[in-house]
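The records we work with from here on pair a chain with its fold. These numbers are not coordinates but entries in a learned vocabulary of local backbone shapes. To see the layout at work, look at the sequence and tokens printed below.

. . .
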Amino acid sequence: MDGTMSGRERFLLVSVSTADAPAATRVRVWRKLRSLGAHYVQQSVCLLPDREPVRRQVERLLASVRADGGTARRLTVEIPDDAEYAELVGQFNTERDAEYGEVVERTPALLAELEMETARGNATYAEVEESEADLERFEKWLAKITSRDHFAAPGADEARAAVERCRTALAAFEDAAIAAQAGEGAARSPETALPASARLHTVD
């Protein structure tokens, strides 16, 4: 059960030292805590909301650190002061908003690419597949940020809207590619559309 106090969440205070562990352990710990959305209060000490899914992953991570020869500790803390609690939540949200902002900054490149290829009359399946891969990367990136957005950062809506614009533009581009291919097929005569060996010849 998630810990709360007067409607406020409790936090996990996580302290990790990998000085006596392999270098790979330090990188793994940093990546895992970052993926969980940890807020660092000082080097090697961070906070995370005390929620069951987060707690389980933290416990597994700390156990692996100890197994590698490092030291790790987890405490549960409460923030009784309303202003301090609001400030901490704001810090979490500022970090997530920075990540959402990167999504918003980068999506216009995909929109511009689709617009340029459309203007060139280059709406092809090859271009569709390339743009689909770009859109998939944006969607996965956004999903990762959302998974560590513990306090509903305000920048989420703008980032989702930016990715949705890309999705809509790509759907229109794909329609143009389908129409272009259909137009090419209609422009061919029934005879020339067939291989030479399959064409019928009139015999007098």
About this structure: DSSP finds five helices and six strands in the chain. The radius of gyration is 27 Å. The first strand starts at residue 4 and ends at 5. Helices lie at 23-36, 52-67, 82-119, 125-147, 156-187.
